[in-house]
User: Which sequence fits this backbone?
């Protein structure tokens, strides 16, 4: 059901510093910051030959990333994102198997303007999983 790894998301306490690490120290191609108010984050994508890194920074008081950074002040891996061909079919299959979809269970538009859902980390060995329709 899952396809390729789309990205690994890393929460950062300082977006400019996080961006500089990948751009200046590691020599990666880094895109411009993009605010996603509906998700409560500002993101920067780091383009790699085989996948992407998504740097996450809190946007607004109710950002889920702010809570993550309170528990992990240095930042860290927040979630992984896999591609699926049909997000509704994937969601329905996972729910039927007992997995929990976060939020209201309906896909939302993600940073790549494609439908996404998030799966409860307790159902995936402690890892928050995002599925994005390819």
Assistant:
């Amino acid at each position: 059901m899952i396809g390729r790894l789309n990205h690994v998301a890393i929460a950062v306490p300082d977006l400019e510093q996080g961006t500089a690490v990948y751009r200046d120290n590691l020599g990666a191609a880094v895109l411009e910051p993009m605010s996603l108010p509906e998700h409560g984050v500002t993101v920067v994508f780091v383009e790699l030959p085989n996948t992407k890194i998504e740097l996450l920074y809190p946007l607004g008081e109710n950002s889920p990333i702010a809570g993550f950074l309170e528990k992990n002040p240095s930042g860290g891996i927040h979630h992984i994102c896999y591609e699926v061909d049909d997000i509704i079919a994937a969601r329905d299959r996972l729910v039927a198997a007992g997995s929990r979809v976060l939020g209201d269970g309906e896909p939302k538009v993600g940073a790549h303007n494609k439908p996404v859902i998030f799966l409860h980390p307790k159902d995936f060995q402690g890892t928050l999983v995002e599925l994005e329709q390819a």
User: Anything to note?
Assistant: The helical segments are 15-25, 64-71, 87-96.
